[in-house]
Amino acid sequence: MLSSRGGPDAGAGDTCLVRACFGKPVPHTPVWFMRQAGRSLPEYRAARGSGSILSAISDAPLAAELTLQPVRRYGVDAAILFSDIVVPLHAVDFGVEVEAGRGPVVAQPFRSEDDLDRLRPFVPEADAPYVAEAARLVAAELAESGVALIGFAGAPFTVASYMVEGGPSRTFAHVKRLMHSAPELWDRLMARLADMAVASVRAQVLAGAQAFQLFDSWAGALSPAEYERFALPATRSVLSQLADLGVPSILFGVGTGELLALMGSAGPDVVGVDWRVPLDEARRRVGPRHSLQGNLDPALCLAPWPVVEEATRTVLSAASASASASDPASNSASNSAPSEGGGHVFNLGHGVLPETDPGILRAVADLVHEETART
Ligand code: CP3
Known about the structure:
Blueprint: H1 16-21, H2 42-48, H3 53-57, H4 60-74, E1 78-80, H5 87-91, E2 96-99, E3 103-106, H6 124-127, H7 129-142, E4 148-154, H8 156-165, H9 173-181, H10 183-206, E5 211-215, H11 224-242, E6 249-252, H12 260-265, E7 270-272, H13 279-286, E8 291-296, H14 305-325, E9 344-348, H15 358-372
Helix pairs in contact: 2-4, 4-7, 8-9, 8-10, 9-10, 10-11, 13-14, 14-15
The structure holds coproporphyrinogen III.
């Protein structure tokens, strides 16, 4: 059993993380780290063994254990379910594997209309029951602890980028060729991937996840006009189809400084910000209606503690400058987010690097809690 971190009132669904996402008052700024479970933790390397990550994910008790390890190690306010954005694609037999050190690779990339036939609907209970099972195990373990469980899915654009490119890409040349030369096919692909993300997140939330994040990690490859035409509509559709769940949503991407306002317009409660844009500037771009998540540079966490400490304080002060700039009295923007806006969830600007000293991340989490504790 984990010690309580949300205070006596933090029952399921009213954790510090959830409150901050909705812009409600919190006892301290909640903190978690993207990719907090993983190779930077010796206990992860020990428990995970050498098999494929997709087989570790399909072992629900193991996935639950890997989800909980960083909660114990770092004292963070949220666990993120140990899974991957390509799990639904893998589960419908599209032919994706995850190569260690490289990432997802697709044997037969998506290039034409015929490839839509290979993409059957994802039915979580039948195709990947282990995901909900892992979520139930984690949620039971976290009950009463005040630590939230975050579910997630890949946003349609980012999942499509792996499908179309066949693997990680620097130029996104095949994706851009497809979207610009066959926009109707692209839209049909995006609609299918939106359905997949909706089904996946819904199953995780029904199994106990209290918030969810859409990873649009590679959206920063798009210009604002491309994002608006080719990525935003499907992401907006995912968020609106999940709105009835009543749990907060976080939309995150890397290199998205020029896209932050558009990402806010997709309707998430929280906009995730990478390390390139200070949070007070991100606030100006996103407007007052959303909470922000971020944004310590993960590479900076490899520096000595005094450097990391200073950088953590800089993030916190940009966040508090951004909170005063989002005084609800000055609200004029309109969108569908139900939240009050203005909250901050501390995170890195992207995932934990495998070389990171776990002691540094523990110290970051402690510092965020101490510095933001409210009486
Ligand atoms: O704590 C956590 O966040 C764990 C859960 C998690 C994983 N993948 C497990 C994983 C999450 C949230 C993801 C999301 C994910 N997967 C994203 C979005 C986040 C981001 O980094 O932008 C993306 C783009 C993927 C696709 C993917 N899967 C990549 C790029 C890689 C890295 C390849 C490598 O080996 O460096 C993976 C593999 C992967 N997924 C690992 C983990 C812990 C590392 C490989 C392993 O331990 O075998």
